[in-house]
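Query form — protein Helix-turn-helix transcriptional regulator

QUESTION: What is the three-dimensional structure of this chain?
INPUT:
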Amino acid sequence: MGDLLGQPILVEDSQPQDDDIPAVRDALMSHRRLSPTLFGQLAGDAIDVGPVITYAEYAWTDYQRGRLGRVIAALPGLIKSAQTLEEHSANDHQTWLVSARIHHLTATTLAKIGEADLAWIAAERAMSAGERSGDPLALASAARAGTHALLSVGRYDDAMNLGQTAADWLRGRVDDNDPSALSVAGMLHLRTALAAARHQDRSAATALLAQAEHAASRLGRDANYWQTSFGPTNVQLHRVAASLDLGDVDWVIERGPQIDSSNLPPERWVAHRVEMARAFSYVARDDEALTFLLDAEQMAPQIVRHSASVRDTVKTMHRRAKHTSDTPLLGLAERVRAIA
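ANSWER: The structure tokens for Helix-turn-helix transcriptional regulator are given below.
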């Protein structure tokens, strides 16, 4: 019923009672933020930007490790800290840089668990802060959050336009050999390639994947600048995801399992297994699909249990199953809310 009505999700393993999506929503949508003229400054003294930067990076690490409950627990405080910094230290470059990072993380996390409208609000805040920072990488990275939000609501044309525009804009404003620039630009190409694939634009997806592959080749290794996880392996994972969206299921089943993503953060490792499960379920190889999902759940249960893609895959597998009582599939179906 919560899924049907769009009610907020309470993420498992969040300890305090208020560490949930409603708390993130309240922080993002405080009416006092609408007009400083009407309401004046928010209550609270000025704070030091240093600890906020540190805690924001901790939260990014938790996200990449698949600990969504911990991220959501941290987001309300981080968002409020960003707001306080914006009010008291608006002329400080670091203020807008950390605000962009916090709101980017917020958008990406919310898109991951299906809160698309809130994700778009957070992405707008991230891009606005990125512009105010004056740092080209901050704005381009925040644009990646915008593509996440647009992809989550099926606006593939807009996602393609945003990602390509940001990548084109970044070119010439940063050192082309800078590994951070290569990583941010490469991830924009990858996100835009996924949008093209979901839009069934094979030629655009192929061209964008080639651009990302070129950037990864120049980078020369799997890295994690700006929490991108960008490098040759992530390009391979996105190629598999794009191919699956384009309907190349046999190719994905043949090539996907050969990719070793163990050197990437767990979030990427899990995402790949979810895609492989989807591919095997398309050809009714449900035992193999289930193995991928159970492996992913063991690594990052919160990502798997709040994934709409997982839920759809498990629903399909559960409908096909002849015997589901006391089986691993039934247990998974209950945990991901694929069945009542």
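ADDITIONAL NOTE: The radius of gyration is 20 Å.
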